[in-house]
Amino acid sequence: MFSKDQLRADVAALLGVPGDSIGDSDDLVRLGLHSMLLMKLSGTWRRQGYRVQSSQLALEPTIEAWAALLGAGSAPAESAPSPSPSPAPAPAESDPADPAAEAEDEEFALATMQHAYWVGRQSGQALGGVAAHLYVEFDGAGADPDRLERAVAQVVSRHDQLRSAFGEAGKQRILAQPPESFFRVVDLREAADADAELETMRDRMSHQLLDVAAGRVVEFVLTLLPEGKHRLHLDVDMLAADAMSYRRILDDLAAAYESDGALPPVGYSFRQYLAERGDRIPADEHEAARRWWTEKLPSLPETAELPTIAEARRADPSRSVRFHHRLEPEDKTRLYALAHGHGLTPAVTLASVFSEVIARWSARQRFLLNLPLFNREPVHDEIDQVVGDFTNSVLVDVDARASESLVARARRLQRELHSCAAHATYEGLDVLRDLGKLRGSAVTPSVVFTSGLGLGELFSERVTRLFGSPVWILSQGPQVDLDAQVAEVGGGLLVNWDTRRDALPAGVMASMFAEFRALLDSLLAPEADWNAPLSIALPAEQRAAREAAETTSASIAPRTLHAEFFERAARHPERVALVTSQGEELTYGAVAEQALSLANSLITAGVNTGDTVAVIVPKGHRQVISVLGVLAAGAVYLPVGTDQPVARRDRILSRGLVRAVVTGADVEVPEGISRIVFEESISGPRADQAVVPDPDALAYVLFTSGSTGEPKGVEVSHRAAANTLDAIAEEFGLTAEDRTIGLSALEFDLSVFDMFSPLALGGALVCIDADKVRDAAAWAELVAAHRISVLNCAPGLIGMLLDAASADQLRSLRVVITGGDRVDAGMAARMRARVPGLRFAGLGGTTETAIHSTVYEVTDEFPAEWTAVPYGRPLSGVRCRVVNERGEDAPDWVTGELWIGGVSVADGYRGDPERTADRFVTAQGTRWYRTGDLARYLPGGTIDFLGRADHQVKIRGYRVELGEVEAAAKTRPEVGEAVAAVVAGRLSLAVVGAEAGRVVDTVAVAAALAELLPEYMVPDVLHFLEQVPLTSNGKIDRAAIRAVLEREAEGRTVAEYVAPETALEAAIAYIAAQVLGIDRIGVTTDFFDAGANSILATTFVANVRGLLAIDGVGVTDVFSAKTVRGFAARLVEREEVPGQLTQVARILLEVAGVPDPSADLAAARA
C-alpha cells in the first residue's frame, strides 16, 4: 500500500518541486498538476497493479485523498486480487483489435475515434465528406530537398501507422512499403506569381481527402522559393495520428533531417495497444462506466443551438476558415497563475471562456460540449514514441443559464469533466450512439473544444530552427462546424477556431471570436476579478442599430380612444363616419347622438366610470356605436362574440367583472348583470357629453384563449391603444380622406384599429354585417364601391380577398397593413402586383401590447429568398428585446424570446395577478411583456418572427420549430401555405397550393425538404389540402388542420412493416436484421430508425459484400439509401450480370431457411 510520502515523492518529481512543499490537503491542481501529468501518474501506478484512473485522481486532487483511494479501493493485484481479468466487452463503436494480427498487411479493427473519422469522410451524411486532418505550413530558408526526402522516408519507415491503409470494410492494415513517396518538391523559384501558386496549394492541401484506402495518410511538400527561402507543407490524416503523434512526426522528421541518418525502431505499436485494450480495462470497470452513462443519458441537454445555416444552403459545405489568437509568454504565465490560484486547470479555464461565448450565441444556454481527450495510457516505456490515434472524447454538460462568475462556472465544468472522464472507459462515441437510440436519431455535437495544454510545445525548438516558423494551421473534421483548439506554441499559447466557412451567417463567427478574445483579455487584465459575474456585452454596432430603430414621435401625445371622435362630431357632424353593408351612410353627428343615448342608458342603469360593460351585438355598424356608447359613459368595453357558447360567454362575463351588457332583446344575461338593449337605448335621452377619463384608464378588456383552457382577459388602457393607432397613422400618412373596412371580429384586437383609427382622423369605416364575414367576393365589391383606401386585417383574409377580387376591384387601396399571423412573402408580392404603388406592410404584436408593435414595409428591395415578412422595427413609443434564458439581449441571428415594452404594454390580466406577474416584468427600468414568441434580430435592427415557443416540439430528441419546417416548404413556388404538427409521434405537414385549385406534388416537396432541412426535421407525412381553414379572426385554423392530419393517421401503424417482394430484398432484410439484432425489418423502414449506427452500418456492408459476393458497395450507400428497398435498388443498378444477384440471394435464403417472396409470388400467380 502506498504511503503518503511515496505519493508525495512521485508528485513532487513530476511538478519539479521539493517534496516537503506539498501538504497532505493541498490542492495539487493549484500547484500546477494537469491532466497529462495525472495520466502519467495513473499509468505508472496501474502498471504497479493499482486499479486507478487519472480521472479518479482528478476528482479530489490531494495527497490525503489519493492515499485513501490507493489504499482502500486499489490495492496491488498481488495483495488484493482484482476481479477476473476477462477483457471488457468492446464498446459498440469499435471492435477489439485481433492480438494475433502481427503480420504485415493483415487487417485489424479501427479504434473508436478512427472509425468515426473513417465514416465521417464518406459522403451522403450531414457535414460528412470531409477528412479529419491537420495541415501546417512552415516558412524558412535553406532546406535541402534530398536530405529532407531521406528524412521523410525514415519517419515513414519508423512509424507503421504512416503506412496504414483503410479499406471499404472499415478496417486498417499496415503496408510493408508505402505505395509511393509521400514527399515531393515544388519549385517556384522562377514562378511569375509565387504567392498565387502558394495560395492555390494551401487551398487544395488544407481541404483535401487523402487516398487513405491506398495508404496515403500523410503528405510532405517542400516548396522552393526565391532567395533560398522555402515553405514546408505537412498534411496528416488523423486516422493515422492524433495531436501528440503529430508532434512526434515533426520531432522525428527534424531529428532524421539533422542527423541525416536512420531513426531507431519503436518497440511497441499502435496495433498492439489496441489488441491489449481489453486486458487493460476489466469488464466490471467498463460495465460500471456504461451503467453510469446510461443513468445520465435522460438528463443530458441537447447540443448548442448556434444560428447555423442548413447544409444544403451553404455555398460549399466542406470549406473551412481559420480564426486565431496568440497569447504571449507573459500572458500565458499570468493565465496559468490565476487559474491555479483558483484551483482550476488552464485547460478548463479556457474551455469555460469558450463555453461562455458559445452560450451567448446559442438559443439555449445549457448544452453538450464535445471535449476530446488524449487518452494515451502509459502502458509501455516507448508509448510516447508511438504514432496513432489514441483520442477519446467526453460529452460535458455545460449549464450557463445562471449569471455567475468565471470561477463558479469553471469549477462546475471541472467537476463535470472529471466525473465524465472518470467513466470514460465507456467512450464518448458510444455515449453518443446510446443517446441517439434514446432520442430516435443521431446526435451530432458539432462544437468541439480541444486542449493540447500539458503536451508541451506543439513545434519543438529543433523543428522551427530547421524548417521555419509555423505560418498557417488549419484542421478539419467531419460532423463539426466549429473546432476550437488551444496549444502551446513559441512559449505562449495559440488559440485556433477552425470553422466551416458558411456554417453561420456572414460575420457571426467573426463576432464570436472577437468576443472570445475580448473576454480572455479582460480576464488577464491587472484589475480582473474572476469572482465577478461573467458578462459579454452585445456588440456595440448591434446595440446602436437597435437603439436607432426605436423612436418616439414628439407629435404623439397621450389621449383616449374616443375623445377625438366626439370632438370631430361636434365640429363636422355632416361628415360620413360609418357605412353599412347595404350602403347606408351614417354621419359623425348621427353616430355621436346614438352613442350618447346609449351612454345615458348605461349611466342610468348604474354604470360608473371605470366599470366594465360587455358588448354582445352582431357584427356591423351597431357594434361600433355600442363601443362608442360604452366609452362615452366612461366605462370599459369587453366584446363577446354572439356565436360564443353560453357557458364560455358566462365565464367571460364572470371573470371580466361585467356590470352591464349591451345586447339584443333576445339575449339573456346572468343574474346580477344589467342588460341594455341596443335598439331601445339609442333612441332615448342623450348624455350631455362623453366622459373622457385619464388616458391611463382602461379602454377595453379582450379575452383570448388561455393555455390552461380558461380564457384570459387582457386589460388595455386608452394611452396604450391610442399610441399604436397614432404611430401607424404617422407611419403611413393616414388622413381624414381615408376609408377602412372592418373585416375583423370585434373580439379580435385588429378591430380596434378598424374603428378608432379612421374615426379619430375624420375618416370613415365601412362595416361588414354578420352574413358577409366569410364572403370575400362581397368584401371586394365593398372595397370598389366605397373606394376603400386602407385595409387592415389578418393575412388569411387578404389571401381570401386576392382570390375573390377581380383585377380592378382593389385599385383604390393605397395602404395594406396586416398582422396577427405569419405574413407570407408571396402574398405580399401578389398584393403589390395587383395594386401598383401600394404600400404593403407586415405588423407584429400581441393583444397584450395593444394590437401592433412593429412594422416592416415591403419594397422592391425585399430579399427574394425570404419566405415571410419579418416583424421589422418597433413602432413609435415601443421598445423590443430578444432575450435569452439569462435575460440578456441575444446577438443578431440568435433565437430568443421577444419582449415588448414601452407605452403600448397592457396593464395585465384581469383577476389573475400570478399570470400578470409572470408575463409582465420590469427590467432595465422598463416594463416589458414577455410574448412567448421566438424571434431574432437581423443585422440593422430588424426583428424576425420565428414562431411561438409553444410551437416547438421534440422530434427524435431534437427541438424543432414547426415554423422553420413550414417556411422551408413555402420556398417551393407551388406551395402557398404549409402547416406542421406532430401527429401520432410523427412530424406531419399539410400543404396548400399557391393558387386556388392548384394541386401540390407532395413527393416533390418531400424531396426538396430533404435538401433544405436536417434529416430529423424532414416530415414523415405530407398531406395536400385544397384550401386553408381559417378561424373567425382570419388566422390559420391549426386545430382544424391537425384534426385532418389525425384522421389521416387513424388506422396507420407508426412502425408499419412492409414485407420484401424480391429475393434480393429478402436477403438484404435478413442480413440487416441479423446485424441489428431484431426479428425482422421492413423494406421501407429506415435502417437508423431501426437502431443502426455507423459501426453497425459498416458490419452490415461487410456482411453484404461477403454473403452476396458483391464489391463496390460501401457505408455511403447505407446512409444514402436508408432502407432495404433503396439499398437493393442500388445493388441492381450496379449489377454487371443481370440476375446474378438474385441467384446468389436465393442461395443465401435457402441456406438461412428464409422464404423467397418471389417464389411465393410466382406460385400464387400459377
TrEMBL record:
Signal peptide: none annotated. It holds the Pfam family AMP-binding. Residues 1-74, 1059-1135 form the Carrier domain. CDD domains: Cyc_NRPS. Gene3D superfamilies: 3.30.300.30, ACP-like, Chloramphenicol acetyltransferase-like domain, N-terminal domain of ligase-like, Nonribosomal peptide synthetase, condensation domain. One of its GO terms (biological process) is amino acid activation for nonribosomal peptide biosynthetic process. GO terms for molecular function: acyl carrier activity; ligase activity; phosphopantetheine binding. Keywords: Ligase, Phosphopantetheine, Phosphoprotein. InterPro entries: AA_adenyl_dom, ACP-like_sf, AMP-bd_C_sf, AMP-binding_CS, AMP-dep_synth/lig_dom, ANL_N_sf, CAT-like_dom_sf, Condensation_dom. Residues 91-100 have a biased composition (Low complexity). Pathway: Siderophore biosynthesis; mycobactin biosynthesis. The keyword Thylakoid does not apply. GO terms for cellular component: cytoplasm. The keyword Phosphoprotein applies. Its cofactor is pantetheine 4'-phosphate. Residues 74-105 are annotated as: Disordered. NCBIfam families: AA-adenyl-dom (TIGR01733). Belongs to the ATP-dependent AMP-binding enzyme family. MbtB subfamily. This is Phenyloxazoline synthase MbtB.
